[in-house]
Amino acid sequence: MKTWSELTEIQPLASRIMTNSIQKDRISHAYLLQGERGTGKEAVALLLAKTLFCSNRSGVEPCQECNACKRIDSGNYPDLHWIEPDGQSIKKEQIEHLQKEFTYSGMETDQKVYVVKGADTLTPNASNRILKFLEEPSKQTTAILMTENSSSIIPTIRSRCQIIDLKPLHPQAFQEQLIHQGISRRSAVLLSTLTNNLDEAVSWSEDEWFAQARKLMIQLVETFSTNAHDAYLFIHQQWLPHFKERPQQEQGLDLLLLAFKDILYYHIGRKDAMTVFAKDDAAIENLVLFFSQEKLLDILNKLLDAKRKLKQNVHPTLVMEQLTIQIQG
């Protein structure tokens, strides 16, 4: 989504609010973009930044070709500052560094924009720091806060931002978008359960790492049903070496959740809801015979618990070892 017109097709209300503000030259000093992962928060932030900095804007649309637009795309524009969680949170020191940066004159123009990704992870001290920033806005400064969990943001920050709600994308419409990009329908169904971000989904569909992740997920599930004692070895020799980074580890658990959900859906006659296995796949018939509905419900709960532990920074090796033992049991 590189234009407001494209955004209108996916987030019509949010796009209309933003473009009306741009047309009337009433851009807020602070926005809070709230919505699920993949609903376009970063796309909105980048579009707004380009709109503010573009030297050859046509109406509300940035030109995409000028020096500012290209440098914003490359992440190399000096007056656009991004803040992301350092580990599990955004810390006071990060906001202090931002405030120091803003004491200097703009490198390219007098306009400055800062984007806070994962604003719900601000520590209490960081929240207080950024609150002071919001309470004394400069006419030439625009803040863009993004969150998937707006209830975790303190009311005093929320009250100083214009809140823009980004709605979840309709899965079927998203699947059609993916198919239009040349992705098979079966892959489109799977990808639409993992992300709402078109660029991300297309990237995964072409990624050898993701293809291998799908294979490992099916192999692990089948190992649990054919020779459960080998699962522990499989985890250490194949699973953990492949899922190295935290986002990859979370995605691995998401894939396992979808696989075990498929087996449960087959059990209860909801084959149309399956995302990993094909309806006529012989492998799933064997898995249905092995895993009872009661066992599947227990496994799904254990997988959700494993995801929570990863979020709490429990070591991924320990998380997967415990999960494997629980599924074996």
TrEMBL record:
It holds the Pfam family DNApol3-delta_C. Signal peptide: none annotated. Keywords: DNA replication, DNA-directed DNA polymerase, Nucleotidyltransferase, Transferase. InterPro entries: DNA_pol_HolB, DNA_pol_III_delta_C, DNA_Rep/Repair_Clamp_Loader, P-loop_NTPase. It comes from the Bacteria. GO terms for molecular function: 3'-5' exonuclease activity; DNA binding; DNA-directed DNA polymerase activity. GO terms for biological process: DNA-templated DNA replication. Its EC number is 2.7.7.7. It catalyses: DNA(n) + a 2'-deoxyribonucleoside 5'-triphosphate = DNA(n+1) + diphosphate. SUPFAM superfamilies: P-loop containing nucleoside triphosphate hydrolases. It is an enzyme of class 2 (transferase). NCBIfam families: holB, PRK08058.1. This is DNA polymerase III subunit delta'. It comes from Lentibacillus salicampi. The gene is holB.
